[in-house]
Amino acid sequence: MTTERSLVLVKPDGFARGLTGEVLRRIEAKGYRLVALQVLTPDLDRLHVHYEEHVGKPFFEPLCEFMSSGPVTAVVIEGERCIEGFRALAGATDPTAALPGTIRGDLGRDWGRKVQENIVHGSDSPESAAREIGIWFPEL
Ligand code: RTP
Ligand code: MG
């Protein structure tokens, strides 16, 4: 048994399209528990820390600008192997490559959109999850 926590974000595109409930439905249907949830418009300082692994990449600033462009829903989920499991639910980073059955594959738009608009973020390792949960939910 490896009960984990992961940090999930419903990004501004997912929030604006009214997909927050659909993302939460899939998380709960999989059997993961919701530990904490908040709607907020993140500032650039927080996003620069959140995405620090991408500092210097060409998409870093556009990504942070996009992520600060409107409300997001930040969620901490919990469950057996939920870090890897949520990333499987999310699908490939590029919605045009994500498989049907995944959040990005089923719901991602593939006409002229930018890859940064891929509905959700999920932590990619236990270390990332601990770091990111500290950024978004320091009280946990
Ligand atoms: P995430 O962190 O959002 O869960 O997604 P990920 O692990 O699948 O992707 P990652 O490589 O960590 O990239 C973070 C986010 O940056 C945007 N991105 N844009 N070439 C590009 O323009 C590009 N590559 C990545 C995406 O929003 C991606 O989710
Ligand atoms: Mg990532």
Automatic annotation (TrEMBL):
<feature type="binding site">
    <location>
        <position position="87"/>
    </location>
    <ligand>
        <name>ATP</name>
    </ligand>
</feature>
<keyword id="KW-0547">Nucleotide-binding</keyword>
<feature type="binding site">
    <location>
        <position position="104"/>
    </location>
    <ligand>
        <name>ATP</name>
    </ligand>
</feature>
<dbReference type="InterPro" id="IPR034907">
    <property type="entry name" value="NDK-like_dom"/>
</dbReference>
<dbReference type="InterPro" id="IPR036850">
    <property type="entry name" value="NDK-like_dom_sf"/>
</dbReference>
<dbReference type="Pfam" id="PF00334">
    <property type="entry name" value="NDK"/>
</dbReference>
<feature type="binding site">
    <location>
        <position position="118"/>
    </location>
    <ligand>
        <name>ATP</name>
    </ligand>
</feature>
<keyword id="KW-0963">Cytoplasm</keyword>
<dbReference type="GO" id="GO:0004550">
    <property type="term" value="F:nucleoside diphosphate kinase activity"/>
</dbReference>
<keyword id="KW-0808">Transferase</keyword>
<feature type="binding site">
    <location>
        <position position="11"/>
    </location>
    <ligand>
        <name>ATP</name>
    </ligand>
</feature>
<keyword id="KW-0597">Phosphoprotein</keyword>
<protein>
    <recommendedName>
        <fullName>Nucleoside diphosphate kinase</fullName>
        <ecNumber>2.7.4.6</ecNumber>
    </recommendedName>
</protein>
<dbReference type="InterPro" id="IPR001564">
    <property type="entry name" value="Nucleoside_diP_kinase"/>
</dbReference>
<dbReference type="InterPro" id="IPR023005">
    <property type="entry name" value="Nucleoside_diP_kinase_AS"/>
</dbReference>
<keyword id="KW-0067">ATP-binding</keyword>
<comment type="function">
    <text>Major role in the synthesis of nucleoside triphosphates other than ATP. The ATP gamma phosphate is transferred to the NDP beta phosphate via a ping-pong mechanism, using a phosphorylated active-site intermediate.</text>
</comment>
<keyword id="KW-0418">Kinase</keyword>
<comment type="similarity">
    <text>Belongs to the NDK family.</text>
</comment>
<keyword id="KW-0460">Magnesium</keyword>
<keyword id="KW-0546">Nucleotide metabolism</keyword>
<feature type="active site" description="Pros-phosphohistidine intermediate">
    <location>
        <position position="121"/>
    </location>
</feature>
<feature type="binding site">
    <location>
        <position position="59"/>
    </location>
    <ligand>
        <name>ATP</name>
    </ligand>
</feature>
<feature type="binding site">
    <location>
        <position position="93"/>
    </location>
    <ligand>
        <name>ATP</name>
    </ligand>
</feature>
<keyword id="KW-0479">Metal-binding</keyword>
<feature type="domain" description="Nucleoside diphosphate kinase-like">
    <location>
        <begin position="3"/>
        <end position="140"/>
    </location>
</feature>
<comment type="subunit">
    <text>Homotetramer.</text>
</comment>
